[in-house]
Amino acid sequence: MINSNLDKLKLYKNFYIPEYKVLFSSEKSNNSCLVIPVINEGNRIHELLEKIASLELNILVDVIIVDGGSTDGSLEENYLKSQNVNSLLLKTAKGKLSTQLLCAYAYVLEKNYKNILTIDGNNKDDPKSISLIVDKLNEGYDFVQASRFIDGGEAVNTPKSRDFAIRYIHAPVLSCFSGFHWTDTTQGFRGYSSKLLSSPEVAIFRKVFSCYELLAYLSYIAPKLNFKCIEIPSKRVYPKGAVPTKISSFKGNLELLKVLFKASFGKYNLDKKDIIK
Q1: The predicted structure's pLDDT at residue 253
Q2: Tens of pLDDT along 57-107?
Q3: What is the DSSP string of 83-105?
């Protein structure tokens, strides 16, 4: 059931919410929520949730996990509830990360959350920055990006190829075309206002967003449409040795580059002819 928060998004054609199931949910406790996309993260998601609980961040954000189809048993309901997870969603539609995020965004907008934060479920990001993201959203910012590359941020064990790609390709290209100076554009640790995610001009609920497109698109379109953006310092730690990642070395990185340039050249922008008057 779509409520009035999402009804205004029907002002464009091809409005689409991916299919998902709510495996459990609790009453809303906060105006802010933390969306965690997960698929087979094993003990990494447990470590992240335990950090969040130890920092007592549940008094600031309701934790919403959206599962992409895990088979590793890491999302056992009683355990998640013991860590104060508010809701567990299961994506049943086809698609990858962007589809997962759209499932969660539809769910949290329906519940009228004011601030929507996201963090990867792989325990690389330090959740201590969550409180600062919430503060900035409450100050009136629409897009708060966590960055390991600004003063106060910290990048630990970042693979050299990835560090180079972010610093000298991805962030500069998006900065040039969006008009906002970004430094850290590939990670999902960020916060959005409900105004941004529910904007019919931004129009996130479309099938074109299925893999990694949504992250790059929002970094491009938010400044272009004069939404208020800021970066805040954060810490991101990669484990030593082999790096756990869902992105294959060559094909995956090539796809990220294609997405980057399509976003930067406005290929994901809503076509004016698709606006319903």
Answers
A1: 73
A2: 999 999 999 999 999 999 999 999 999 999 999 999 999 999 999 999 999
A3: TTEEEEEEE-SS-SHHHHHHHHH
Answer for the pair 110, 6: CB distance below 8 angstroms, yes or no: yes
The tens digit of pLDDT for each residue in 159-178 reads: 998 899 999 999 999 999 99
With the C-alpha atoms ordered 156, 157, 160, 161, is the resulting torsion angle positive or negative?
negative
Which domains, from first to last, does the chain contain? 4-274 (3.90.550.10)
Give the dihedral sign, CA 241/243/244/250: negative
Q: What burial letters (b/e) apply to 109-128, b meaning 16+ CB within 10 Å?
A: bebebebbbbbbbbbbbbbe
* Both tokens assigned to 275: 């606006």
Distance, in Å, from the CA atom of 146 to the CA atom of 167, rounded to the nearest integer, reads: 14
What's the CA gap between 102 and 138, in Å, rounded? 23
Q: How far is CA 142 from the centre of its chain?
A: 13
What pLDDT digit, counting tens, does each position of 34-60 carry?
Answer: 999 999 999 999 999 999 999 999 999
Decide: residue 53, CB within 10 A, 0-12 exposed, 13-18 middle, 19+ buried. Answer: middle
- Given the DSSP bridges, would you call strands 190-193 and 235-237 parallel, antiparallel or unpaired? unpaired
